[in-house]
Amino acid sequence: MKTITFFMIVTNYDVLMADYAIKSYYHIYDRRDSPWSGDNFTLLVYANCLNKTNREHYFPSWRQIPFVQLYDNTEKARTMHLKAGDVITSPEGIKRERDSSCENYDELWTTELRKIDTPYYATVDADFEILDPGFYVKMMDELNWDEGMVGYSCQYDPDRIVHDTYSGETILLAERWHTCFCIYKKITHQCSVSHFYYQFILPNGRRYCYDSAGNFQHHLIRTHGWTLKALGDAYADQFIHYGAFSKNRSLTPQNIGVYRRLAIAAQTGLPADRRWRRIFVARKAARRLAQRLAERSLRVLFEKQIAERDKYRFDEPAYDSEL
Question: Is the pLDDT of residue 270 over 50?
């Protein structure tokens, strides 16, 4: 049996970046000095309503990757008669509109993750690319050592007041271990709470919201007494989360390569090609210069493409400090 299953949902909008993300797991596959690397994992790619063109273009190459298990939900979705605007009700009774004619992330994490039987499983985004597997090995080592820790994410946000771009309201957003790369132990299947978005109204009338999987994580801690952890900034140059790529409408096969290289350089100061990364790692001045140049180029060349995704991220209002 494999040790861990990574669960990645891919849609038509993020398939361009998903192709890079899927192949980046070769960094784990090619590493042979850790019990967590090599061929000890499965990347379960859940193709969520991909159109015929994308299926024909990507499926043949993905099926050739030794660690990929591909699931195509085309027939399943057809029988579900999915359409944008339909009301989805979570097991906890919270109603939200389906934002596209695809299966929803929350419902898939709730139903599909429980089917995974490996000792560890992870939610991984289609726009999360591994640049160096060291951060993953550290996460697995610590999870293995600490019996009480059942989850480990690459990023964490505490409770904070934010502007919800979906509703236009200011809300209190609960702490959350980000789901873009979040590993759980199989024992967490004992938690009966769903991965759906959850909310309630505070006495002051403000909404207190748990983003996707946040309420599930809350119950892992408060109900079951387990702990979760997140990586520190020391590993920030070993991966990149491009962010909100399911909302991408403007990046195309013609410009995705340039965007990706600039985004990686802007975050890490390092080139995308790992053959060249070793040369730059220790050269801090060169990295800082590369970051500044890449950030400027990214803003100039891809302002529209970044803006269309940024509006779906939470922005913390500077004027509001009330909790």
Answer: yes
**Model pLDDT for residues 33-62, shown as the tens digit of each residue:** 999 999 999 999 999 999 999 999 999 999
- 204 CB contacts (<8 Å, ≥6 apart)? none
Q: Which fold has domain 4-153+177-192+228-235?
A: Spore Coat Polysaccharide Biosynthesis Protein SpsA; Chain A (3.90.550)
- pLDDT band, residue 181 (cuts 50/70/90): very high
pLDDT value at residue 306:
74
Which sequence spans correspond to the domains of the chain? 4-153+177-192+228-235, 248-310
Classified as helix, coil or strand, 30 is coil
The span from the CA of 287 to the CA of 230, in Å, is: 25
As a whole number, mean pLDDT of residues 235-246 equals: 86
Q: How far apart are CA 133 and CA 238, in angstroms?
A: 7
CA distance 136 to 153: 10
Candidates 26, 103, 105; CA nearest to 68 is 26
Calpha distance 205→320 (Å, rounded) = 15
Vertex 77 angle, CA 67 and 118, to 5°? 30
3-state secondary structure of 308: helix
Q: Rounded to whole angstroms, what are the CA distances from 65 to 1, 23, 80, 108?
A: 18, 8, 30, 23
Distances in Å between the alpha carbon of 117 and those of 63, 105, 187?
Answer: 22, 20, 10
- In angstroms, the CA 19 to CA 50 distance is 13
